[in-house]
Design goal:
It is built from 7 helices and 2 strands. It has 186 residues and is mainly alpha-helical.
């Protein structure tokens, strides 16, 4: 069974304590994990069902409170714990080409007029700075609450990646503007 990024998040949450899927969604959003994994309630429920079918998690109880729908609480199984640590080890130990869309667009950017490319790159750099500012605020908040760094190390990684991309874009913009990098005319 493939352990997707969302499945990793689910297994990690259940490794902390038993939860029902709605609580998982809320916890992931509260922790801003939606910045690194696509968190959609429907996808999460489907992921939990797949993990249960693969015997990596199991339902432990079902409750109903008032008019709310039934909520099934899940726990991680020993096989789920093994799958989690195995997948984390694979992902941490070896780089994987994830085929992000930006390099494809960048590789074909010569099909867009120079002035428009400069506007688009500048806009992207500005948006990256906004993301960096948001991540820095999250890091400051975690530090002020004395959350151990091991729990928010991803934020530091995301900040470093965004900062590197922003700086690279600034250099690229300078090269295009100065005509050090010649741009085809369309």
């Amino acid at each position: 069974m493939s352990v997707t990024p969302l499945a990793i998040s689910v297994l990690a949450l259940l490794n902390e304590r038993p939860m029902h899927p709605y609580e998982m969604v809320q916890t992931l959003l509260e922790r801003h994990q939606d910045r690194i994994v696509k968190v959609r309630p429907g996808s999460l429920y489907h992921t939990v069902e797949r993990l249960a079918a693969g015997e990596l998690v199991q339902a432990t109880r079902t409750e109903r409170a008032g008019n709310r729908p039934e909520r099934t609480t899940y726990t991680i199984t020993p096989a789920g714990q093994q799958a989690l640590t195995r997948r984390l080890s694979e992902l941490i130990g070896s780089p994987v080409n994830e085929y992000p869309a930006f390099p494809v667009a960048l590789g074909e950017a010569h099909n867009i007029d120079r002035v428009e490319v400069l506007e688009l790159l500048t806009s992207r750099a500005t948006q990256l700075q906004q993301l960096i500012d948001e991540v820095e605020a999250l890091i400051a908040s975690a530090r002020s609450r004395e959350v151990p760094e091991a729990y928010w190390i991803t934020a530091d990684y995301v900040r470093a990646m965004h900062t590197t991309e922003r700086d690279w874009l600034a250099h690229l913009i300078d090269r295009i503007e100065s005509k050090d990098l010649s741009w085809p005319t369309n």
